[in-house]
Amino acid sequence: AQSVTQPDIHITVSEGASLELRCNYSYGATPYLFWYVQSPGQGLQLLLKYFSGDTLVQGIKGFEAEFKRSQSSFNLRKPSVHWSDAAEYFCAVGIIQGAQKLVFGQGTRLTINP
Amino acid sequence: SQTIHQWPATLVQPVGSPLSLECTVEGTSNPNLYWYRQAAGRGLQLLFYSVGIGQISSEVPQNLSASRPQDRQFILSSKKLLLSDSGFYLCAWSGGAEGETQYFGPGTRLLVL
């Protein structure tokens, strides 16, 4: 069955430090991969997506992610975090069954220390 | 540009009461529509999806139902709410020029007491 694992439930980093959020997926075919961000009480905002082609994808707010097929990973990175990046981050894999459905990881909550 | 609306934003309902949550999309035609639930401290679970008017697919057995009476309207309902129906409900759409990418609404927080 398809699944997404985000090993880190909660991460704390200092403002200005670099960030990497981990995501591993299980899916038999070539995956569609997504990262979304959710601020408290809000909906999900798309940060970036990978469908095919260049394995390093750029997103909004200075985020990037790298697809590594050999490791079944799609880790999210940012070179220097800002206090406004504090939020919950969700990795998802898209599977085609009738329509494209998203299978989400459990999320990683990011806290920023001043 | 496309926008997605959900209402109400917050709802407090007693156990056993009915439920109707509404989602509408603007700026696109024939979207795929989705309902997700996010329980406290947990990830998102797909409840229903629809590829067209009157076409509803259920992902998990539950106390809820969905309907799509118009092309860009998706409704989540229940005849009798349970305590376990509490959560954050998110509607999403995909299709058109955006292809397979799903875009989410602002959500409805439901508290069943």
In short:
With 114 residues, chain A is mainly beta. Chain A is built from no helices and twelve strands. In chain A, a hairpin with a 5-residue loop joins strand 5 (32-38) and strand 6.
Give an overview of the whole structure.
By secondary structure, chain A is mainly β. Chain A has strands at residues 3-5, 10-14, 19-21, 24-26, 32-38, 44-50, 56-58, 64-68, 73-78, 87-97, 99-104, 108-113. In chain A, strand 8 (64-68) and strand 9 form a beta hairpin. The radius of gyration of chain A is 14 Å and the shape is globular. Chain B is mostly beta strands. In chain B, the strands form 2 sheets. In chain B, strands 2, 4, 5, 6, 9, 10 and 11 form a 7-stranded mixed sheet that branches. Chain B is globular. The mean pLDDT of chain B is 93. Chain A binds chain B through residues 32, 34, 36, 41-46, 49, 51, 90, 94, 96, 98-107, and chain B through 6, 32, 34, 42-46, 49, 51, 57, 59, 90, 92, 94, 100-107, 109.
Helix run count of chain B: 0
Amount of helix of chain A? under 10%
Largest interface: A-B, 24 and 24 residues
Overall body shape of chain B: globular
> How large is the radius of gyration of chain B?
13 Å
Biggest pleated-sheet summary of chain A: 6 strands, mixed
Number of strands of chain A: 12
Q: What would you call the quaternary organization?
A: heterodimer
Residue share in helix of chain B: under 10%
Structural class of chain A: mainly beta
Described by strand count, sense and barrel closure, the largest sheet of chain B is: 7 strands, mixed
Strand elements of chain B, count: 11
Low-confidence stretches of chain B: none
Mean pLDDT over the residues of chain A? 93
Mean pLDDT of chain B: 93
The percent range for strand residues of chain B is over 45%
What's the N-to-C terminus distance of chain A?
Answer: 41 Å
User: Order of helices and strands of chain A, N to C?
Assistant: EEEEEEEEEEEE
Helix and strand sequence of chain B: EEEEEEEEEEE
> What is the CA–CA distance across the termini of chain B?
38 Å
Report the principal-axis shape of chain A: globular
